[in-house]
Design goal:
By secondary structure, the chain is an alpha/beta fold. The protein has eight helices and eight strands, in the order E-H-E-H-H-H-E-H-E-H-E-E-E-H-E-H. It has a five-stranded parallel beta sheet with strand order 2-3-1-4-8, with helices on both faces. It has a three-stranded antiparallel beta sheet with strand order 6-5-7.
């Protein structure tokens, strides 16, 4: 079963992908991880991707699709896999469909983690990260015992740059312009399912498991 998880940054799709992977054994495929692995291993596509990255250019879709094509042939992808954060544009979705068709495969379902921008801004801008151990907190939902101090190791907590409101709003603008239309692409194929990502993680996971099982 091939699943695509869509949703804005902070919607929880990555967290839920990890939970499904742990339960079903379907690997969670991240294009970032695949790029780093290919570069580290010095593969042909990895070297090609590195040539673009070294000069500050975006890695072309054709190279990314090539990396995915190589990865999905691995034995651990035989029963299925989850694409988290890809495709980000309609051309990427079209290229993915063509590549999978060549392998006699296709996307089974696309899950949209739906959540209002206002909720995301509140969720992300309230996050605080431990400088030492990486533990995560939230000023409202999961605050530390002592403000600004990590419960686990006693180090200071900070707000990461990408959790600041102005940065979040810019990331959301990019998402709405480029990635949100991908939902319509899969909806036209009757493959889109929506989840209310405002719900607690356990409820989201329950709805997600129900979708996958039906």
């Amino acid at each position: 079963m091939i699943l695509v998880f869509l949703g804005p940054p902070g919607s929880g799709k990555g967290t839920q992908a990890k939970k499904v992977t742990a339960e079903r054994g379907w690997p969670q495929l991240s294009t970032g991880d695949m790029l780093r692995s290919a570069i580290a291993n010095g593969t042909k596509l990895g070297l090609e991707a590195k040539s673009f990255m070294d000069r500050g250019a975006l890695v072309p879709d054709a190279v990314v699709i090539g990396l995915i094509a190589e990865r999905v042939l691995s034995p651990d992808c035989k029963a299925g896999f989850i694409l988290d954060g890809f495709p980000r544009t309609i051309p990427q979705a079209e290229a993915l469909d063509l590549m999978l068709a060549e392998l006699s495969q296709k996307v089974f379902m696309t899950v949209l983690f739906d959540i209002p921008d206002s909720e995301l801004v509140s969720r992300l801008s309230g996050r605080r990260t431990c400088l030492k151990c990486g533990a995560m907190y939230h000023v409202v939902a999961a605050s530390p015992k002592v403000e600004g101090i990590c419960d686990a190791c006693g180090a200071g907590l900070v707000q990461r740059d990408d959790d600041k409101e102005d940065v979040i709003l810019k990331r959301l603008a990019v998402y709405h312009a480029q990635t949100a239309p991908v939902a319509g692409y899969y909806d036209s194929q009757r493959k889109l399912r929506k989840l209310d990502a405002r719900l607690p993680q356990t409820e989201v996971l329950g709805h997600l498991k129900s979708l996958i099982s039906n």
